[in-house]
Request: fold
Amino acid sequence: MSGAFAGLRSVAAQVAAEGTDPHQLAAIVAFSAQPRSHPDALRRRDRDGDRTGPIAARVAALAGPPTATTSPVAARLLGAWRGDAVRVALVGDPAYPRCLAEGWPELDPPVWLAWRGQAPGHDPGVAIVGARRATSYGSGIAAWLAEAVTDAGVRVVSGGATGIDAAAHGATVGRPGGTTVVLGCGHRVDYPRSHARAGGLFDQLLEDGGTLVSEALPHQPPRAHQIRSRNRIVAGLAAAVVVVEGGERSGSLLTAGAAAERGRAVLAVPGDVRAPGSAAPHRLLAEGAGPCCSPAQLLESLGASPSRTQPSGDTTAVADGQARPGAAAPADGAAGGGATGVTTLPPTVHAALVRAWPRPVRLEDLASTAQVPVGGLLAALTRATVNGEIAEAADGIRLRRAPPDVG
Amino acid sequence: MSGAHGVLALVHAVALVGLTPHRVRIECSRATGLPGMRLVGLPDTAVREAEDRIRTAIQRSGLRWPQERIVINLAPADLPKVGSGFDLPLAIGVLAATEQIPAASLAGLCACGEVGLDGSIRPVPGTLPTAVGARDLRTGRLFVAEAAAGEAALVTDLEVVGVRDLTEVVALLRGDRLPRESLPTPTEVPASTLDLRDVRGQPVARRTVEIAAAGGHHLLLVGPPGCGKTMLARRLHALLPPLEMDQALEVAAIHSVAGERAPDAPLSLAPPLREPHHSISAAGLIGGGSGIARPGELALAHRGVLLLDELLETPRWILDALRQPLERGEITITRARSRVRYPSRVLFVAATNPCPCGHLGDPRRACTCRPDRIERYRARLSGPLLDRIDLHIEVQPVDRRQLAGAADGESTAVVAARVLEARQRGAERWGAGMLARDLQDHQLRAGCSGRAMSTLVRAIDGLALSARAFDRTLRVARTIADLEAVEVIAPEHVEEALAYRLSAPVGV
Ligand SMILES: [Zn+2]
Reply:
């Protein structure tokens, strides 16, 4: 039996982030691992308690020590984290993001945060969130905003879902600010599948210095309530939340609500008044959210953020000249022609895509008007997709980056 | 041979196992015992029913039904013998055994036909492959129903005698009459009314159809309802070159076995186009049924186009059963007592909606599907069968303005000429009948420039494609090069070939 406790202690020590006490971590995980037990219960107990001293120590005391029954279970859970190179910090600990811990316990930050990749840091980022069923237009806007945010040295936070989230995360690759993905499930669960597979978006982000965070136990599946509750973490990690596209009952409304509760800025990107994906942003605009029509407008809203010096004048200058020291330089492979402004596309095709940006152009329409042979056009489009200049989706083809004269 | 039991009459017939002919010897003799007919050699029910038809027919034709026992042996015994086509040789055997026609007249005689109660001779399914079998097995001249004589006469180096009824058969074999000459049914190339010019505003789809026709590449069309998927598939069919004479016979033989061909219909040189409904059974698609397996839609589409709409509505296991026949160009159906092979070199065109509701990417109507359902749906558009399909495209609905506009594209005649040239170039290089679809890895690499190869490797990596995309892309690139009359595959051929894949379902 003492062997089980010893095993638990040693695995907890390997998983605990710097400044997190392995004993406290072991106790809280052991408590949460019991059937019908949730770390939320600890938060409620702490709210009603006397609340002096470090939060993590109080919460661990409320959890009680691991028992002979809970300790092997907790050791297994911590072992799964260790296997995935996950680090865990308890709320209030030095490695736990301060911007998220701020609201303890009223605003319900998670008792622990488990992450893969770089530590999440303390400075709030900008959350760019929206529909999973995004249009190419929405994805184009999300990428446009995300590029400007990361180029200003600010982290892009989102939920790692398909659609808008993926476009925002993906646009940060090779750029200085970095990105944080807030998962709606445990680290052991491959969700969404297309992003979690080997070589998928999540691997690319991790390789690029990104962070994947989760409040869930390793094997916890992405249940609806779980995905809803991760939205408060997205809001907690951001100084501003921008909603790009979303339906009437979009989860991004919850993220916006959580941001408002925390006194963080809420912005919405206006859309086509008849498109179903405009429901959420338009409702937020009606309720007083700030309109976000350009990266400049978004960066302005960060003025109140203490960790940020307001860039004066042209934001493009910030992007090009004031990249955070030590940040990754843009990779020329990934950004390719788009980054250098040199296009490999036939001039008529490029012009049509520039005119439409960020709206996509349907392939057949492009082929009908391009005045180049179809075979040659398709070859040029493949080239431009491979070097990252364009993105192809079911609703058409668009430039990945804003044309130089926009924004 | 004569003596106590009289004459032993011998007539030949052909039994088909699928399309494969087997010689059947039909021996008839009188025997002691109760009057009646006894069949030996495991004939199936239909052959057994022949006794009733033959007796009535012989009597009604003013001929004599024996008042003694007739023993008939169909050899070899282990061969399944199916269908009413054995009526005629059986009747001839009985008439010879009872000395109503000279036994000597049966030398080198093969017969196939159903006998009606009135003595008339009727055509049966499979007359054409029976005639091919009669020639290849050297059974001698072939008696068939007059209505099927034209079809049988398509087979060269075979004497075909068309007969109307038993009275005529007896007269011919007694030498009272000379046979009429049987002329082969005419051949025809039915002109398609479907022109590629009618496809407006879809230059990419038109280009894809041209490549599919030139290389014989299977094609997946993904698009909302009413975007013109079927229209494209039919025009692809119209682009295929007409069949050679022996190919047309092979195709007609399959249709004849399936009973899908009127015996007096002209021989069509047009490749077949089959469009089974998605609710089709496995037997209907692959072939099957009781007894000897009949050809299914797949074999009936041999050397033509098989179009399967609403692909994902067809059960997965049925689709998976298509893979091997598509790969091998041949279907093998194994039964307890027989194994049947049918050729199945088809151009497979599959069509499906882009998502469960059908409107993903449709500018006319919004898609109402949940993203995870779209992801699951799209995941089903892969797997062993889909991997065999070289060309995957999204067909986009054309807006009204373009539909109303003038037809601006090339006509079927112009494109078909290019398709034929590209096919001939491939045939010169790889051998007659070889299509880019059939090429193996080493053949593909041999014709590919180093730069094209490194372009392909880089692109597969950059686009995160699976390794299976490698051969698929090279096959299509080969066809594109052949359409341009270029011998070595260049980087732009590879890049174009890579474009024939589906893009992401949501904005990325
Ligand atoms: Zn849909």
Summary: Chain A touches chain B through 47 residues (CB under 8 Å). The two ends of chain A are 64 Å apart (CA to CA). Residues 304-340 of chain A have pLDDT under 50 and may be disordered. Residues B 355-357, 359-360, 367-369 surround zinc ion (CB under 6 Å).
